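Structure ticket #2291
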Amino acid sequence: MGNVPRLQLFALDCPDPLELAAFYSRVTGFEVESLGDVKPEDVTWIELVVTGCSTLAFQKVKNYVTPTWPEGPVPQQAHLDFTVDDLDEGETYVLGAGATKAAFQPGETFRVYLDPVGHPFCLVLAS
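Resolution: structure written out below.
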């Protein structure tokens, strides 16, 4: 690929990187990287461990403001899509992991959920 940029990771701002990393670990099955000698309260950045493709990272920010999707003063800014073979089974899975189903559902081949700090994400029916 030469000098063509390759996606390394996608980072989500949040108030508690360990908490959000644990949520997405439950959703994806990917492990959270080791803290090493870092105390949990000192974590400002952490990633999921993924081999062979890009990963998710979680960055602590002061004064984090939850998105107000689909309307309101704070736009969603970004969202993640996860493919599933069955929307109902996928929904049961992500709700069990700690997601909340969004009140507004704009489509039939995907469903919108919110992670524990309010980032919207979708389960998309595999085609």
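Closing remark: The beta strands are 9-14, 31-32, 45-49, 55-60, 80-84, 100-101, 110-114, 120-125.
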